[in-house]
Amino acid sequence: MWEENKFDFIILKSFYITRKDGSNKYISLGVSNILAKHDPDVIICDGYNHTASIEALIYSKRNNIRCLLRSESNVNDIRSNFFLLELIKKFLVRNFSGFISSGLFSREYLQSLGAKYEDIWIAPDSVENHWYKKCKYKKKSNKIIKLLFVGRIMEHKGIFNLLRAFKSINEDILNDFQLTYIGDGNKTSELKDNVKKLKLKNVELVDFIQPKKLAFEYSKHDIFIMPTLSDPWGLVVNEAMAAGLPIICSNKAGCSKDLVIDGWNGFVYEGSKITDLKRCILEFHKDIDLIYKMGQNSQKLIALYCSKNAANSIISASLNQKNLVEEEINSFRLKHIGVEYE
Q1: What's the longest Cα–Cα distance across the chain?
Q2: Same topology for domains 13-122 and 129-302, yes or no?
Q3: Strand 24-29 to strand 13-18: parallel, antiparallel, or no bridges (unpaired)?
Q4: pLDDT tops 60 at residue 2
Q5: Whole-prediction pTM
Q6: Burial of 206 (C-beta count, 10 Å sphere; 0-12/13-18/19+)
Q7: Four-point Cα dihedral 291, 331, 72, 254, nearest 10
Q8: d(CA 282, CA 150)
Q9: Domain at 13-122, CATH class
Q10: What is residue 223's DSSP assignment?
Q11: For the residues 137-152, what does the mean pLDDT come to?
């Protein structure tokens, strides 16, 4: 990606520790020397979980440089309830000049850590929307409703809750649905075993697919489901919306408050409630025209969540100027949905 976009970059010397959930904690060294060489006017740290960010913050304080923290964290993150970790975060937050949040949930979380509202700029998480918008979305013509999950096959992604919800659909109409999982992870074998035990012939598991090839998979399906139990954002929701799909989204996803307007371009449900997820799925069976209507709305909304707007928000934060992108999103929501962006 860096080479493709022609960014200058330097790879720090680093090593990592693998956590129990399969994610990696990176420890990087030497960023102070690089900053001294480049003499920046503004430093943007991508999260407080990186040693490089802490080193950069210390450098900025010593040299009186504006230092911004970019954060996706929210109260639903699986690591957001450790008391000692929260104290460390609050200490770090007090020392940054400003903040760049991915959305509403992350802004609220930064405020809970002591950040001031006026010091937070929302720079919406985005993907290359044109990769996924391959064709104009068409009205559904066949009876089978095709559900799609894309992501890591891990416990906290809610993969088993989705399978339980799917299995609980009344047998009389279960064959009206097809569920596809795309991805890999440490629970792949267990998920396959569960599908076999439940004798679900209309559930398919597909290995990881590169982003540029995912557009075709999105176009083959009708509804995207984000069943996560903990997720800072969820860029797969951006991708699915760009492809014109309605969204069923857990309220544990960081993007749920920004991207999914309940009843307009999909449904938001309580992340741990399987019956609530099942209810959302059945809404589309009751009214199949919602697939087309909500899919169109998804494409309209996600157009605002583009790389250009994200970059403009970051520039506004760097220059300590008003965030016009946030105003644009708010105007759209008021005009088309009647709901403020807050």
Answers
A1: 68
A2: yes
A3: antiparallel
A4: no
A5: 0.91
A6: middle
A7: -30
A8: 20
A9: alpha beta
A10: E
A11: 83
